[in-house]
Amino acid sequence: MPVNTARQVFLTFDVEGPKGREDHFTRESAEALLRVLAALKKFRLTGLFFITGTVAEKLSQYTEIVELLKGNLIGYHSSSHTIQPRIFEYTDVEDYQQALEISLKRETSSIDPNTGKIMGEGGILRLRRIFQNNNVKFFRAPFLCWAPPHIESLRDLGIRFDFSTGISDIPSQFKGLTFFPSPIVVDSIFEKVVSVVENQKRVLPRFLLKKMLSRQCTVLLMHPSKLICTDQVDRSASEHEVEVRFTKKSRSKLTLDLVALKMLFCELSILERTGAITITPSPRMTDHNLDAQKIDAEKLWKENALICKKLFNYKPTFMRNHFAQFFGCRKEL
């Protein structure tokens, strides 16, 4: 497929703990992340890593991981991930300005991963202290569920690029932020790759290759924690109890998934060397401005409300009005 100009492909990673305990960064999570970072370094690729405040507080224990992360782009993944109250809950107040102020407080605070209570200064401030030479100006919301007053609070804290809203198919500017296209989750590719290794088939799925070569910008989303076998985790278990479940079977899965991941990185590296794509360039503010009148705010808030309902059986009360205010709708949605 002929390509006249290099397409931008962002390799992005959400740094979390195992499923069900995303705010608890265990030793297995650290091992999986270390393997991913080593693979990126091997193929001379750059990634964009979104890290929560709760995980950032554990990173100082892993100096090798921190050093490898410094060679990549660092983004923010909110002060906490799964513990309550979540973004769509603490911003679900009637007054938009109050929701913004609550967000400012939460995103500059250390959050207890067990209770959700504020324990002092932390959040994005903690992440920036760890990566002082890496301007943390990128954001992605957990579960890709965002709230307008929350995103405006992050803008006030220096965030300039959002990777969670899916407002536009190309990088576009609105209210001082550049919004990137919705990410394509590629965790499941690992299993598909492993299944075709023996047959020497193309590793990169055809649909994904077509998207990357036809779009101006493609965002790929991976979770290093998905490389480990923790699909059935007792939420009440201690971190030690979760860690001891790293069995021989799960180590075997980790090995296979890493083989698949390296093959994926290898193909992406080849595409970059041929000039077809550019992997994770340093994002810049775009000249393309969004026309708020052309944005389907109704569709966007419904998508967010659906995530809240599907994942957490939560029905937001004021989210609809917040979207209307953010996009300057003449009347409430």
Entry summary:
This protein is an alpha/beta fold and 333 residues long. It has 13 helices and twelve strands. It has a single domain, classed as Alpha-Beta Barrel (TIM Barrel), CATH 3.20.20.370.
Could you describe the 3D structure shown?
With 333 residues, the chain is an alpha/beta fold. It has a single domain (7-298), classed as TIM Barrel (Alpha-Beta Barrel), CATH 3.20.20.370. The protein contains 13 helices and twelve strands. It has helices at residues 27-42, 53-59, 63-69, 87-90, 96-107, 124-130, 148-156, 189-196, 206-214, 239-243, 248-273, 297-312, 319-326, and strands at 7-15, 48-51, 73-76, 109-111, 118-121, 138-139, 161-162, 172-174, 177-179, 184-185, 217-222, 277-279. A hairpin with a 2-residue loop joins β8 (172-174) and β9. It is globular. It starts with 6 loop residues before the first strand and ends in a 7-residue tail after the last helix. The model is unreliable at 194-200 and 230-246 (pLDDT under 50).
Task: Walk me through the topology.
Blueprint: E1 7-15, H1 27-42, E2 48-51, H2 53-59, H3 63-69, E3 73-76, H4 87-90, H5 96-107, E4 109-111, E5 118-121, H6 124-130, E6 138-139, H7 148-156, E7 161-162, E8 172-174, E9 177-179, E10 184-185, H8 189-196, H9 206-214, E11 217-222, H10 239-243, H11 248-273, E12 277-279, H12 297-312, H13 319-326
Parallel strand pairs: 1-2, 1-11, 1-12, 2-3, 3-6, 6-7, 7-9, 10-11
Antiparallel strand pairs: 4-5, 8-9
What is the CATH class designation?
Answer: Alpha Beta
Terminal-residue CA separation? 43 Å
User: Which segments are poorly predicted (pLDDT under 50) over 5 or more consecutive residues?
Assistant: 194-200, 230-246
Tally of DSSP helical segments: 13
What is the third-level CATH name, the topology?
TIM Barrel
Q: Which structural class do you get from the secondary structure elements?
A: alpha/beta
- Classify the helix fraction into a percent range: 40-55%
Number of domains: 1
CATH architecture classification? Alpha-Beta Barrel
Series of H and E elements: EHEHHEHHEEHEHEEEEHHEHHEHH
Oligomer: single chain
CATH superfamily label: Glycoside hydrolase/deacetylase
How much of the residues is beta strand, in percent?
Answer: 5-15%
Number of strands: 12
* Radius of gyration from CA coordinates: 20 Å
* Overall average pLDDT: 86
Described by the principal axes of the CA atoms, the overall outline is globular
Q: Could you describe the largest sheet, including whether it forms a barrel?
A: 10 strands, mixed
